[in-house]
Amino acid sequence: MSTRLAINRLRDREPLDDEAVDRFITRYGSPIVEGERATFLWRGHADEARVRHRVVGLPDPLPLAPLPGTDLWFVTTVLPAGSRVEYQIEVRRGEAWEQFNDPLNPRLAHSPLGSSSVCASHGYQVPDWVSFDPEARPGTIVEDSIRSKALRREQPISVYLPARFNRALRYPLLVVHDGTDYLGFAAMRTVLDNLIHRLDVDPLVAVFVPPGDRLREYANHAPHARFIARELVPLLTERLPLVDAPEARCLMGSSFGGIASLSTAVRYPGYFGSLLLQSASLVFTDIGFAHGGGPAFDPVVSFVNRYRAKPTAVVERIYQSCGVYEPLITPNRSMVPVFRQTGMQVRYTEARDGHNWENWRDRLGDGLSWLFPGPQKFVYE
Questions:
Q1: pLDDT tens digits, residue range 258-274?
Q2: What topology does CATH give the domain 128-380?
Q3: Does pTM top 0.85 for this prediction?
Q4: Helix, strand, coil % in the chain, rounded to nearest 5
Q5: What DSSP letter does each residue of 179-208 carry, written as one string?
Q6: Which of 130, 163, 292, 330 stands the most exposed, by the fewest C-beta atoms within 10 Å?
Q7: Of 117, 28, 184, nearest to 354 (Cα)?
């Protein structure tokens, strides 16, 4: 078996004509993953072509080079085992730039900002509990709204009731920030159905809460915290058979949603038993005030700086995750010992992934089964 990269074997082929390139693309597609090397391809005529991504540690953009005598462009880079990268192709014709998904790659990831192409290296697998399982009984999503005095608006919510929901029982409550996005881009309804069906997660009620002005309300905003702790949770506890105790309440969110979760717990210490923080925007400064995040991060940095100066235990347990390819990896790593020194139990995990919804989706099985372990988890742990 040849150890030479496929693109190098193509370069030596004679004749290197359109038919040879056609056969090569039909066989390999794009990107070509060989060991810890990934070769990105684009085919077309342009003055310049490159790969755009948001992977900390790789040059952005990655310039594509034309293969002499052809209309094929390529670049090879290192991609460690288990990596998952989202990217697009960008080309320049004259003064005009155009950015688009890789036309040679059918694999896409979706987010509120649109879609991106996905490159997965050897060792990465989509967890099997992400996909629809016909044997898993589906839970129910109930659409509702709450008139919030704290937020001064009607707040829509989506309430997940597990399969076999029984009002004679009592259920823990999971409050999900950016709830609409977790349902739409992290397959969270299917994930809950599967994890509960497999007995990895105890049956629970989840409330999915979309934000209003997200950057304002999620950045340590007192009215938002008051809505969650003094309006939403009490109302759901009144309407549904929930366990009315801190240990049965969990706040979760990603990015700014992680800050909303933590800051709500800080404002109402002891009211929630756990937090699930995914790539939380835990930006801080050790000296001075320059953080590089822009004005939206000013209240976040102020909040995290104050907490770091006087950390306190606000919940019993925190599940915290982050991607090693995102800029937030350093502040997330730095906050783990800060949380632990308060006596809170912290489970921290990293993935070779970026700041995106599929990274957060892939961590849900580990996080939810640790915070809400079902009987299957008790057997093996």
A1: 999 999 999 999 999 99
A2: Rossmann fold (3.40.50)
A3: yes
A4: 30, 30, 40
A5: HHHHHHHS-HHHHHHHHHHTTSB---EEEE
A6: 292
A7: 117
